[in-house]
Amino acid sequence: MRLFALRAVIAAEMQGRQLMRRRLALAILIALPVALYLAMLGQSRESAIQFGALGMSWSVACASLFAVLAAREAEPRLLLCGFRAAELMVGRFVLLVGGGMIFALAAALAMTLASSPISEGALIGACVLVPPVAVSLGLAVAAVIPHDLEGTLVIIGLVGVQLALTSGTWINVILPMDGPIQLAYRAGGSSSAPVGWSVLHAVATVLLLLAIASLSWSLRLHVRRAAAA
Amino acid sequence: MANVSTERLAAPAPADGSPPIGPVLSARGIAKAYGSKRVLRGVDLTVRGGEAVALVGENGCGKTTLLRICAGLIRADAGSVAVRGGIGYCPQQPGLFDLLDADEHLAFFGAALGLRRSESIAAGRAILADLDFPVGDATVARSLSGGTRQKLNLALALLGHPRVLLLDEPYQGFDRGSYVDFWDHVSRWRGEGRAVLVVTHMLAEHSRVDRVVELGTGAHRSAASGAGA
Fold first, then answer.
1. Nearest-CA distance from A12 to chain B in Å?
2. How many Å apart are CA A130 and CA A123, to the nearest integer?
3. Is B177 helix (H, G, I), strand (E, B) or coil?
4. Domain ranges of chain A
């Protein structure tokens, strides 16, 4: 267990070092949700919060996707040397969720001050739920479709469809970001979904997506240990 | 088996004069197809400790596939691989993290091998110094020259003193001096009792190894069976 934790920590550390060196990408990842939020701010409070949350989802999910894809060549060698896929995934998940959470809490604070939401708790809840769900989405997409363009388009599609839907349709339920987005609706004053449902949806989505990512990685990256000669 | 030639160029014997060591890597009946294209059919290969073997053959004949199967990175359709001791695998394309520097790579890969960070960096720097790599340079991998990247790639395969070295054209991009040194290193690793399997197209260097194993091409896929294997 201790070895697992030590390896997960170094995996997280190396992921963080790589992420911090992509300054331009980081700036764009932050600018995207800010731009979406500001663009909608003049129209309605509800839309601005919703777009801000969806923009964060795009940013965090794509950061997660590209974090995996950047390691595609090197990771099999790490496994050959003795790392387990779970150690790499846990390290990456913790780092990305942690980084996303810092961004999300700053965004929640800014949106609370700028939009005066109906429910501040719901707004903070929405922002806090975005990183784990979006990171899980990025990990799952990267594991199933390990190609940058295709993966990015799938994330744009899955998150973008959410934009086109009104709250309360059955399609919402099968979309990964529905949990935090329902809370964002509630923060703007128009959600019918109970808070408990949103949290449950987010937790179930994270578990499902991580299971997909784990299964796909274990099949794709499994190192076959040779018998002793 | 068709299209196979093997050549014994020198008897494998450790440099210290001790008796030859038994098989350290043994592949039996390896078959692999990608879709309808059969790449390997019934390939046998044995490499003893203290033996350096060159794996040669035309482009697309399955050299890299065989190496990756021996490393455990891909699954053979048929056959088995047995290995005594750890494997160091150096892929043809550097399997590196673009945004990590050499010391960070050493720490990361060393963690996989169960080494402390300081141990990994000290051991790795010694290997890198041997390869004439600018030790201590904090340049990230993607900013290194091709040959320098390849030296880091090779050093990671050597970290932890693996008993079996699987090297897939590991000298790509090396300058002339580094290339000559590389074959001296092969002789040294052989003398240390390691099993060294090198994919190479360099006919001039076949005198530097104990055996040359040629994978054939054509409708009847070959087996490669080293003399005495």
1. 10
2. 11
3. helix
4. 2-228
